[in-house]
Amino acid sequence: MKVYKIGCFVLYLHLYCTVLLCAQETKKAEIQLGGFAEVYYQYDFNNPINNSRPAFIYSHNRNNEFNINLAFVKASYKNDLLRSNIALATGTYMNANYADEPDLLKNIYEANLGFKISKSKNLWVDIGVFPSHIGFESAMVSENWTLTRSLAAENSPYFETGAKISYTSTNGKWLLSGLILNGWQRIQRVNGNSTPAIGHQLSFTPHEKLTINSSSFIGNDKPDSLRCLRYFHNLYAIYKINEQTAIRAGFDIGAEQKNKGSRQHFFWYTPVLIAKHNISNRWSIAARTEFYRDKYNVKIATGLSNGLSTFGYSINSDLKILDNLLWRTEIRQLNNKNELFASREKTLNRNNLTAVTSFSISF
User: Fold this and answer.
1) Taking every pair of C-alpha atoms in the chain, what is the biggest distance, in angstroms?
2) Is the pLDDT of residue 293 over 60?
């Protein structure tokens, strides 16, 4: 153990000195200060008595009230060989997704440091808290085509903590990353867990109209005494049909050991398809269809004997009032095979209809 610690210290010292010496050679540096805020109002026509959306909805999850989904301030530093980001945030998104983090970590939206390890290649190492390498949706509404997130995005990591090495080809067509992580959407590892998780991302953009991406996660997100390996893969493609219309298609599949040491696994999967059409420079519409199947209650615990089997569709209209001010409105319907969605009368329904509108600003 002592040899291991000494080796880690020597490696850290070597990397630190390398970065320090390289930084002295660079002249280009940029510091940026900015932020983002999104406010929303949502009405769930089941009107649940606790004014909360189902437990597997983590973004825009409050009903019949005006609220902040996400608001953050961010500082970034970048030069030829170093880059760093720190962002502190609040909102219902943070409350839901950071519920298991200690108090001092609940508001860290992003905090990372990266350094380039090759003078001739675009090869970087980044360490800290950063956006997830999985999926084509993020926490920021302005970076997505729909107002709310798909069930696939809601139930895969929005953020991750660890270290990654990434390479981007000179022509920008290839991105390859390898990651070591603290777990499935975590800053602090689960108590009693001693096993890091790993992942990869491979993205190919042969031309400006098409992007194909493959991302994975392998790891245990439970204490060692209950260790169950989780295998997860995300595949998506983005295709730009013309200047006005584009589509995104994704498919997630996951498997987790039934119990510690078992050779049998529980599976879940979810396909999603989103189409967007720009009516003008300021106005666009988008439609989404999706299906989520978690028969064994692995990722989404419903309490139902046959788990989750939910089909959904939505349509939204977006108006860019200013270059940095976006107004979005969405109608969304979810239909589950069995009664699942809570209502004001304390009964369960198969169907869930919502209407939500939001304003977001970036600066």
Assistant:
1) 68
2) yes
